[in-house]
Specification:
The chain has 574 residues and is α/β, with parallel strands linked by helices. It is built from 16 helices and 17 strands.
């Protein structure tokens, strides 16, 4: 919440707009206050990146901020033909209205509404390394408290022990009396400096959580030992794969008349690239029709390039480079065999994606990999050069006999994100029934972290509790505006209430909304018009329509946005 007015524009049409500020004339009269719409027009018209194609867009914006009537209909047309802003390095994918490098480079701000009721807060925190923020200690606590109260949060769920944000937020939430659960995705050792540090942090943080989830039984056993947890408080919920996105297509296999081996991962030491550069020459020397397709980027890419030069394998090895997630399936369907050389893995979703695309899998037998697929779909090998090369050679003959469609159906029957969601919901329901411990009980739990670290943790928790009370005194929770729930509207009359909206808490309604029969979704935002930041990623969302509120509990300065979603099974849109 800020005093200034910030307007986020789709970067496909307008690339740079300075921050909008109130009219210096002062608020003495309504006419002396420049409306946000006029500020927007003036800022765009004076911008250096102003183009002739932007003029029709400005003319189509109507100023209704001074109208005493309810907001009128405003339609915003985004012209995809306008030049995009200068490209910046991209590190993540998104579902905003503009899918370009500038939007995906980690520079997002504010709140984004995604599909199916997902709401994302982009935090003003600096990234330290590998998408991990600098530790903030108490600096982020007031803002995080505001988010929890504003969104009426019940459970805080943290992921990944190496995340500073997750560890801090779990401590913040526990201090304020919220239920907390945690999911671990990685395996760590016990004898190196980094692992010892992470283990001590997790032992401290997880001393006072309600439940812990691991993605494999191996990960569960590893975490119980590392963080000294009771096994009764740790559950195993595996990952899954969207089999509708990863479907086999043998006609896409290229090059033809060869056995294509696909490897897709980050090119780092942990993924076994040092092992791979020794395996490829051996396999190519023994099998003439093997072709390697390697996707990914990282510091070990130079080793692969040197290998191709040394052994003259440019015609047998293809280095694709970094592959966006939406292009992973197109690369997988080119192959017959999927190769995983990882030295440690907790689960490895890449194996499921490859098997769902009909590829036979060859993998090192490490971590939780043996739990992912049955032996008939995967060939295991020890993380050694000779063993892995022999496994690939044996898989060449096996890959000619497998049925890609059968592999896909088997993966579809074994893994489903719906099943993962249901099992996670069971954990949430159990966590919501737990009792909130007192401060003395929490301090007793944290004291078990160690003779020295336990005392330090208790001191930090007491300071955090005092800071929480100070925040409650300066900014009481009753003065924080509560954000209303997103109301989704579908054309399923059986799940609609009296005012034509669908209850988001009804699981049947959510299933119908997610099905192919859904055409409409309603989004209600109880905020002044100039503070609303709405972003839509659907390519068919050319129009954004503001309609008058239809019930009494919506303020006059609130808006309701309706937008279209094309029927999946029918090309006709409403």
């Amino acid at each position: 919440a800020t005093n200034s007015t910030n307007v986020n524009l789709p970067s496909t049409s307008l690339s740079s707009v300075s921050e909008l500020k109130p009219n210096p004339a002062g608020p003495s009269s309504p006419s002396s206050i420049e409306s946000p719409v006029n500020q927007l027009k003036n800022a765009i018209s004076t911008s250096d990146s102003m183009s002739p194609e932007t003029i029709p867009l400005l003319d189509s914006i109507e100023d209704t901020s001074h109208s005493p009537e309810i907001p009128k209909v405003i339609k915003t047309h985004v012209d995809s033909s306008l030049p995009p802003p200068p490209a910046t390095p991209s590190s993540s994918s998104s579902t905003s209205s503009s899918f370009n490098d500038n939007e995906t480079s980690g520079l997002r701000q504010g709140v984004r509404y995604m599909t199916n009721g997902l709401k994302v807060y982009y935090l003003p925190l600096a990234v330290c390394f590998d998408q991990v923020i600098f530790p903030t200690l108490y600096a982020f606590f007031p803002l995080f408290r505001n988010i929890l109260i504003r969104e009426r949060i019940t459970i805080v769920h943290g992921h990944q022990g190496t995340s500073s944000l997750a560890n801090e937020c779990m401590l913040y939430a526990r201090c304020m009396g919220f239920r907390v659960c945690y999911t671990d995705h990685s395996l760590f050792g016990f004898n190196d400096l980094a692992s010892i540090h992470i283990n001590k942090v997790l032992k401290t943080t997880l001393s006072d959580v309600d439940h812990v989830i691991c993605v494999s039984n191996t990960c569960r056993e590893n975490l119980v030992l590392r963080a000294c947890l009771h096994p009764a408080f740790v559950s195993t919920i595996p990952n899954a794969v969207d089999t509708t996105r990863f479907t086999p297509d043998t006609s896409k296999r290229f090059p033809v008349n060869t056995i294509n081996v696909v490897l897709l991962s980050r090119l780092v030491y942990r993924k076994g690239i040092d092992l791979l550069v020794k395996v490829i020459p051996l396999v190519c020397n023994k099998v003439n029709n093997v072709y390697f397709i390697i996707g990914g980027d990282g510091p070990k890419k130079l080793l692969l390039e040197e290998m191709c030069e040394r052994y003259q394998l440019h015609d047998r090895v293809e280095l694709v480079g970094a592959v966006p997630h939406h292009k992973v399936r197109a690369l997988l369907v080119r192959g017959h065999i999927f190769l995983n050389c990882s030295l440690t893995e907790s689960f490895c979703i890449a194996l499921l994606e490859a098997a769902s695309c009909g590829l036979f899998v060859v993998s090192t037998k490490v971590g939780g990999v043996p739990e992912v697929l049955p032996p008939s779909m995967i060939k295991f090998a020890e993380p050694k050069v000779e063993a892995l090369s022999e496994a690939i050679i044996e898989a060449v003959s096996i890959s000619r006999r497998i049925s890609s469609a059968e592999f896909h159906e088997r993966v579809k029957a074994m893994y489903s994100w719906l099943d993962v969601a249901q099992r996670t919901l069971t954990v949430y329901n159990n966590v919501a029934k737990t009792h909130r411990p007192s401060l003395s009980v929490r301090l007793l739990r944290y004291s078990t972290a160690g003779s020295v670290s336990g005392i330090v943790t208790c001191f930090l928790v007491v300071c955090m509790h005092i800071m929480w009370r100070v925040c409650e005194f300066i900014w009481p929770a009753t003065e924080i505006e509560v954000c209303p729930d997103i109301v989704l509207r579908s054309n399923m009359d059986s799940n609609s209430n009296s005012n034509g909206t669908t209850d988001i808490n009804n699981s049947d309604s959510i299933n119908n909304i997610s099905s192919s029969t859904c055409k409409y979704r309603r989004r209600r935002v109880h905020q002044p018009f100039e503070d609303v930041v709405e972003d839509f990623n659907n390519e068919n969302d050319d129009d954004q329509e503001v309609i008058p509120p239809d019930d009494d509990n919506v303020n006059d300065n609130s808006i309701i946005m309706d937008y279209e979603i094309d029927d999946i099974n029918d090309a006709e849109s409403s």
